[in-house]
Amino acid sequence: TVEVDFNKKEGSFVDSFSFSSYLSHFDSKKLNQLSISSHAEAKDIEQKINSSNFEVIGSKRNKMRKNPPAPYITSTLQQDAANKLHFSASYTMKLAQKLYEGVQLSNDKAAGLITYIRTDGLHIANEAAKDIRSLVIERYGQDFA
């Protein structure tokens, strides 16, 4: 990984910023994982890069649309809880049950915070999808629907 400090020319909106990048080519040769064979060679490349000036000769902007991850099903909830939080499957299911049972509201009614735990169906009824789309448009605008 190459850390880069990027300085714009005078009169631009932003003076400088930095970002990380990966060195994929050096001296017109494509680098792979084993291209640099010694510490001395790596230091030599680092010195050449540090003493060089670079110029951006072009840029390209793309719009990307990334879909959200699928909703949890029982198995993926347990896997993520185990991998990220080190929870056992039984502890995860106890917590999920408490979320399903919900919280007590001021009007003495309980409100569940998640759907039934062992319902692994991913289908959303057309009417529900329509209602959700309307709510998204109302709150966030047509661009997000």
Q: Largest sheet, if any? A: 2 strands, antiparallel
User: What is the average of the pLDDT values?
Assistant: 83
Number of helices: 4
Strand portion: 5-15%
**Approximately how much helix is present in the residues?**
25-40%
Q: What CATH architecture of the largest domain would you give?
A: Orthogonal Bundle
| Shape, principal axes of CA atoms | elongated
| Widest beta sheet: strand line-up | 1-2
Rg, rounded, reads 26 Å
Structural class: alpha+beta
Task: Classify the fold: give the CATH topology of the largest domain.
Answer: Topoisomerase I, domain 4
Domains, number = 2
The CATH homologous superfamily of the largest domain corresponds to Topoisomerase I, domain 4
Tell me the series of helices and strands, N- to C-terminal: EEEEHHHEEH
- Strand segment count: 6
Domain Topo IA-type catalytic: 1-145
Protein name: Topo IA-type catalytic domain-containing protein
GO molecular function: DNA binding; DNA topoisomerase type I (single strand cut, ATP-independent) activity
InterPro entries: Topo_IA (IPR000380), Topo_IA_AS (IPR023406), Topo_IA_cen (IPR013497), Topo_IA_cen_sub2 (IPR013825), Topo_IA_cen_sub3 (IPR013826), Topo_IA_core_domain (IPR023405)
Give a verbal description of the structure:
- The chain is α+β, with helices and mostly antiparallel strands and 145 residues long.
- It has two domains: 2-50, no CATH class; 74-144, Topoisomerase I, domain 4 (Orthogonal Bundle), CATH 1.10.290.
- It has four helices and six strands, in the order ββββαααββα.
- The chain has helices at residues 39-50, 74-85, 89-101, 126-140; strands at 2-7, 16-21, 25-26, 29-30, 103-104, 110-111.
- The strands form three sheets. It has a two-stranded antiparallel ribbon. The chain has a two-stranded antiparallel sheet with strand order 3-4.
- A hairpin with a 5-residue loop joins β5 (103-104) and β6 (110-111).
- The mean pLDDT is 83.
